[in-house]
Design a protein that fits this description.
Elements lengths: L2 H7 L6 H12 L1 H4 L4 H8 L3 H10 L5 H19 L2 H18 L3 H9 L3 E5 L2 H15 L5 E4 L2 H7 L8 E5 L6 H12 L3 E7 L4 H4 L3 E5 L3 E3 L5 E3 L2 H29 L1
Parallel strand pairs: 1-2, 1-3, 3-4, 4-5
Antiparallel strand pairs: 6-7
Helix pairs in contact: 2-5, 4-5, 7-13, 8-13, 9-13
């Protein structure tokens, strides 16, 4: 369990001094596992007893055990992050293998026949991916309307018809607000395409038109999690190229019928 989780689990036991001490430790993890209790107390301007009481509230017997835990977690992070490049390559290869086997015909047909195409990203990184999707399809004279936020989505739902489609980009596919939007779209007979990471998620169960990318999280030194969206751009490029091929097939089929 990470130190942040320990703090969250025991937060109701902590007083103002404890929170101050733990905030200092979180901001200086690498330094703190090398500090003795006397030096940490000096830096936090509290007594050694206050430090010890704080540590015990997290479930540790003493300060030495806490230091060992901090060092172990830091080393564990280093070992994990040694493999982050390898993880990225694995994620890319898994996504490419999935995309190679995926039949894009029905999704391309949906895009080709749509009167209007709306694209929505659930967060800031997802909106960047949505913008890239819009720009990519613009090269084929296919215009995608960006939905800028939940308020705009809510306002547009009544205007979207069953002749339109919506492309929804969500990392987890479990964003709470999406359920309301997808239910309303389904009731109106509006088809939508979900683009998510390759996990079981609510969004992908609401539509037969799903695209996935494999992504892995890793920890930064700050303790925060990072997950790359790079692989979603590969997915977009593959989708676009399949669409171009579909357009060519439709054009050739039309010419053949006219002859």
């Amino acid at each position: 369990m990470k130190i942040e989780e320990l703090i969250n689990n025991n937060y109701n036991k902590l007083n103002e001094n404890d929170i101050y001490i733990l905030k200092y430790i979180l901001q200086n993890k690498t330094e703190c596992f090398n500090l003795g209790i006397t030096e940490l107390a000096r830096r936090c301007n509290v007594s050694k007893t206050t430090i010890l009481r704080c540590i015990k509230k997290l479930g540790f017997e003493g300060y030495s055990e806490f230091r060992i835990y901090l060092k172990w977690k830091e080393n564990d992070l280093d070992k994990t992050n040694n493999n982050i490049v390898e993880k990225l390559i694995i994620d890319i290869n898994q996504t490419i293998n999935y995309l190679k086997d995926r039949d894009f015909t029905e999704i391309c047909k949906l895009i080709y026949n749509a009167e209007n195409i709306f694209v929505y990203g659930t967060g800031a990184p997802q909106r960047v991916v949505a913008q890239a999707l819009k720009q990519t399809f613009f090269a084929a004279n296919k215009y995608l309307y960006m939905i800028e936020g939940e308020g705009e989505f809510e306002g547009l739902i009544d205007k979207i018809t069953k002749n339109d489609i919506v492309i929804i980009i969500s990392l987890s596919g479990n964003t709470t607000s999406l359920e309301s939007y997808t239910n309303k779209l389904s009731l109106k007979g509006v088809e939508f395409i979900s683009i998510t990471k390759l996990i079981n998620n609510k969004l992908s169960t609401k539509t037969q038109y799903n695209l996935y990318a494999t992504t892995s999280e890793f920890l930064l030194k700050s303790g925060s999690e990072y997950e790359a969206f790079t692989i979603f751009y590969i997915l977009i490029e593959v989708l676009f190229r399949h669409y171009i091929n579909y357009e060519i097939d439709m054009k050739n089929s039309k010419l053949k019928n006219e002859c």
